[in-house]
Amino acid sequence: xxxxxxxxxxxxxxxxxxxxxxxxxxxxxxxxxxxxxxxxxxxxxxxxxxxxxxxxxxxxxxxxxxxxxxxxxxxxxxxxxxxxxxxxxxxxxxxxxxxxxxxxxxxxxxxxxxxxxxxxxxxxxxxxxxxxxxxxxxxxxxxxxxxxxxxxxxxxxxxxxxxxxxxxxxxxxxxxxxxxxxxxxxxxxxxxxxxxxxxxxxxxxxxxxxxxxxxxxxxxxxxxxxxxxxxxxxxxxxxxxxxxxxxxxxxxxxxxxxxxxxxxxxxxxxxxxxxxxxxxxxxxxxxxxxxxxxxxxxxxxxxxxxxxxxxxxxxxxxxxxxxxxxxxxxxxxxxxxxxxxxxxxxxxxxxxxxxxxxxxxxxxxxxxxxxxxxxxxxxxxxxxxxxxxxxxxxxxxxxxxxxxxxxxxxxxxxxxxxxxxxxxxxxxxxxxxxxxxxxxxxxxxxxxxxxxxxxxxxxxxxxxxxxxxxxxxxxxxxxxxxxxxxxxxxxxxxxxxxxxxxxxxxxxxxxxxxxxxxxxxxxxxxxxxxxxxxxxxxxxxxxxxxxxxxxxxxxxxxxxxxxxxxxxxxxxxxxxxxxxxxxxxxxxxxxxxxxxxxxxxxxxxxxxxxxxxxxxxxxxxxxxxxxxxxxxxxxxxxxxxxxxxxxxxxxxxxxxxxxxxxxxxxxxxxxxxxxxxxxxxxxxxxxxxxxxxxxxxxxxxxxxxxxxxxxxxxxxxxxxxxxxxxxxxxxxxx
Length: 734
What we know:
Layout: H1 12-29, H2 31-34, H3 42-45, H4 54-62, H5 72-85, H6 89-113, H7 121-131, H8 136-140, H9 145-170, H10 182-201, H11 210-222, H12 227-231, H13 235-256, H14 267-286, H15 309-324, H16 330-342, H17 368-385, H18 387-409, H19 415-425, H20 430-442, H21 446-459, H22 464-476, H23 480-493, H24 498-510, H25 514-527, H26 532-544, H27 548-561, H28 566-578, H29 582-596, H30 601-613, H31 617-630, H32 635-647, H33 651-664, H34 669-681, H35 685-698, H36 703-715, H37 719-732
Helix pairs in contact: 1-6, 1-7, 6-7, 6-9, 7-17, 7-18, 9-10, 10-13, 11-16, 14-15, 16-17, 17-18, 19-20, 20-21, 20-22, 21-22, 22-23, 22-24, 23-24, 24-25, 24-26, 25-26, 26-27, 27-28, 28-29, 29-30, 30-31, 30-32, 31-32, 32-33, 32-34, 33-34, 34-35, 34-36, 35-36, 36-37
């Protein structure tokens, strides 16, 4: 960094022009991101159904585990965005781009306040941050709104604190009091700075490094730190940052799973990891080539001498910069700021993503800033010596960075391209193979998906997620025994994986082992009590095994978590009906399902059955017709509508619907029986007998079929045969 004592400050209008240039540059280079969809775990951050209400907003703040990480301000922002545009990706991407541009503007303001880089250095610094390719992962990936939002608050807090610090310095004893009175101005600036810092912590806990960064900058400016002047005002910030950092670490271990063999590093190995991580990030900042969303996870061997080179080289560099600090404090300050921004992610604390890589571009988003500040300081010195050359250099650098950023942003267009790009650059990424397989499964490309799962399992044979996803693919092919074996292998590796128990339960239920399925669902719920799909599947299994009352309780638990799930409302209605509570509770559930999803054919048809049973023929016909408009392929719907039309005195229409039901489902006993009875009522005995005889072959134990066939045979004079079927009907229902 380089400070000018009296910079040639551009006119105010150029600051606004500079801000416009930063926003325009961001919108241009991130234009591909604005057309992109969601990737990887974006679905975990876009507000879940159970949290979309006002009560859900309260859970975001007061229930740990309601969201993937406890960043309540971030998830409140997502909650608000969901109210605005739902699941449409464009809005989330636009917010991310605008937040990144805002951070770049605040960064330029901060450089200007700190007098780094001369007159035009702050604008150059803001544009470098705006266009740097390493930032793409934070801007184009919706999940990382935690970076873009928290950085706006982080820089806003820093600006407010430096305003407080400057006013406090002017208000020192023995100095003339400024106007307005200093006490009010000091308190306001300090409160604003502290409030913004707290908001930053509630967006992402890595911002806990801010008070340390402020002390480094104050030391760089003044050459010394005093307890009263610089340290004491920041003590509450250190307390807040430490508390949030420790809490986040606990959440990471407890709710996300950042513990186990993958994190079993000795203190020496963690130092070796940290040394290499620092040089890796510095290299990507200075030369942002071959960026990868998932970098390879390098081995750590304390017995390999070469692995000690990185930490030793870092120590030597810091020693040299400490000696240089007697004359120039800027390089050492930049190094300390860089290390401080990275410190939570150097390997000394467990982060779940260390399972697959020790580094990620989005982890160095804040760490870009001190390196940029140092570069801008050097550029300002060059501009003093040769303004023309410095201007051309800045333009070439910015154009190159912008082109690389635009190119990197293309990879985020859709999930398939996203994972293919990762695998092109890191073919050994078992996680990318598994995730790509999952995406291919969702779009019906099962064969390709299985190939990706197999690739993931070749790289990591006991990978529970790949074993589970492969099992899901096998279930879709009807290969239930093989799928169950895969799930059991996954549970042997990770017995605490609730989602695996859910999928195993589904496979067991499909293979007729409902009792075993129920046990798996219950074990899964002991691990994850708020897993809505587990509650729903358990309810379905209970309903199938005749435990309707227990099923009602599980469906209600599902709806507490997903109150806007129309399928859960429909199924709850079925369970209530099976438990003997069809009216009015069951009907209310089917109506709610239709309110949430007006084209829900099953709910409409089920209401039609209820209307028919209660003598409301006009409503029954209207409901069943509405259901068939939504899904005309439901054979039972045509049969039920035929029954209502026949009772309403519209036999020709009824016959047409029975015939359509049989076209859709040949051998449908009820439709054969009902069609035969309707034809017989019209005197079309030959046709009626044909259908009734088929029905008797399909369901010889049906009293209704035997009775209708007997009457038809009697009507055509086949009395002896009619007696046989009357007798059969009497035996079935004396």
